[in-house]
């Protein structure tokens, strides 16, 4: 039985470094092209497994090179792929244009991800997992089905979207950056608690803030580091947060103190990920995280 089940997307990332991101109608030349495994779901599953939780991934991949690339990256990190299906659609692809200042523009072709549904076997795994973690790069109906079947559901509401009360009613913990927080709750962070019982808002280099209905806001400061590439910082944060909540020795409901410990470890892990390039290659292992936490 998995501690953490991630229900989410997997993409091949095509990264194009450019001097300037093209304006509509314009063509620019990239100085290179790299192709690597990514997608919010895959990144978060790898982060959870590397952080030490038994992690299963529910996803849809194409029967193509991209699917093979993702299977290799995920299984190499110890993610259980028995609930990953191979479908008659191309593997999801993200085209990531990065300019000289590190700003990016991303276009995602969901392809196989758009076909993902929750099979009976996946529903059982979701029901039995300690923590289920999902994002919004797969169909809303699949996220909703996972939320309804799970015991403790973490929604990373990314990319930003307006969300129904029907879905948020099944969310135990919402994890969002500041832009996504505004899409769900409006400009005041505290308004998130009108919609979900607890939320973690990530604040980039400043760390994160924990909001619950039962305690005052808790600020967990970021770790000061030299940034190389922030790709997958948010995904590393979510995966390690889920893994830490699932593997702590606690029993019973998640408390503020469980959340604070998990957010501290997630912050350290995400600060390690920004010091390395790429998505999955930058995700740290548990021993590196714990060496920094000690
Ligand atoms: P991304 O889209 O870049 O993956 P995000 O927008 O989802 O990230 P952020 O709030 O920017 O989310 O970052 C997530 C977490 O990553 C932060 O809470 C923090 O722990 C870590 N982090 C991000 N940027 C930095 C930084 N410059 N220095 C240290 N830690 C960082």
Brief rundown of the structure:
The protein is an alpha/beta fold and 294 residues long. The chain is built from nine helices and 13 strands.
List the helices and strands and how they pair.
Blueprint: E1 4-7, E2 11-17, E3 34-38, H1 40-50, E4 55-62, H2 65-76, E5 84-87, E6 92-98, E7 104-109, H3 120-128, E8 131-134, H4 140-149, E9 153-156, H5 165-168, E10 173-177, H6 178-185, E11 198-202, E12 207-212, E13 218-221, H7 233-247, H8 256-273, H9 286-293
Parallel strand pairs: 1-4, 1-8, 2-6, 4-5, 8-9, 9-10, 10-11
Antiparallel strand pairs: 2-3, 6-7, 11-12, 12-13
Helix pairs in contact: 1-7, 7-8, 8-9
Bound molecules: adenosine-5'-triphosphate (ATP).
Adenosine-5'-triphosphate (ATP) is lined by residues 177, 202-205, 207-208, 222-223, 225, 227, 230, 232-235, 237, 267, 270-271, 274.
Notable features of this structure?
alpha/beta; globular; binds adenosine-5'-triphosphate; four-stranded mixed sheet; 294 residues; 13 strands; 9 helices; 23% strand
Number of beta strands: 13
Poorly predicted sequence stretches spanning 5 or more consecutive residues? none
CA-CA gap between termini: 29 Å
Q: What is the overall shape?
A: globular
Question: What small molecules accompany the polymer chains?
Answer: adenosine-5'-triphosphate
* β-strand amount: 15-25%
Q: Compute the gyration radius: what is it?
A: 18 Å
Total number of helices = 9
SSE pattern, N- to C-terminal: EEEHEHEEEHEHEHEHEEEHHH
Major sheet: 9 strands, mixed
Strand adjacency order, main sheet:
5-4-1-8-9-10-11-12-13
Helix share, percent:
25-40%
């Amino acid at each position: 039985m998995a501690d953490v089940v991630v229900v989410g997307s997997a993409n091949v990332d095509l990264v194009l470094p450019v001097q300037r991101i093209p304006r509509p109608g314009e063509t620019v030349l990239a100085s290179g092209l790299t192709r690597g495994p990514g997608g919010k779901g895959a990144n978060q599953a790898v982060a959870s497994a590397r952080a030490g939780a038994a992690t299963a991934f529910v996803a849809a991949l194409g029967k193509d090179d991209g699917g093979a690339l993702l299977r290799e990256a995920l299984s190499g990190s110890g993610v259980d792929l028995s609930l990953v299906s191979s479908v008659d659609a191309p593997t999801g692809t993200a085209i990531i244009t990065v300019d000289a200042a590190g700003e990016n523009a991303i276009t995602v072709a969901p392809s196989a991800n758009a076909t993902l549904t929750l099979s009976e076997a996946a529903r059982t795994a979701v029901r039995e997992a300690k923590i289920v973690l999902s994002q919004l790069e797969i169909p809303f109906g699949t996220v909703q089905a996972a939320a309804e079947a799970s015991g403790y559901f973490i929604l990373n509401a990314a990319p930003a979207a307006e969300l129904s009360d029907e879905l948020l009613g099944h969310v135990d913990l919402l994890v969002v950056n500041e832009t996504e927080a505004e899409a769900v709750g409006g400009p005041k962070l505290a308004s998130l608690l009108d919609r979900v019982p607890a939320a973690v808002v990530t604040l980039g280099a400043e760390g994160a803030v924990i909001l619950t209905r039962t305690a005052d806001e808790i600020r967990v400061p970021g770790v000061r580091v030299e940034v190389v590439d922030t790709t997958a910082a948010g995904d590393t944060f979510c995966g390690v947060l889920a893994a830490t909540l699932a593997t702590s020795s606690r029993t019973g409901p998640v408390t503020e103190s469980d959340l604070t410990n998990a957010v501290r470890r997630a912050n350290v892990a995400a600060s390690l990920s920004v010091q390395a390039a790429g998505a999955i290659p930058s995700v740290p292992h548990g021993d590196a995280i714990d060496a920094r936490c000690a």
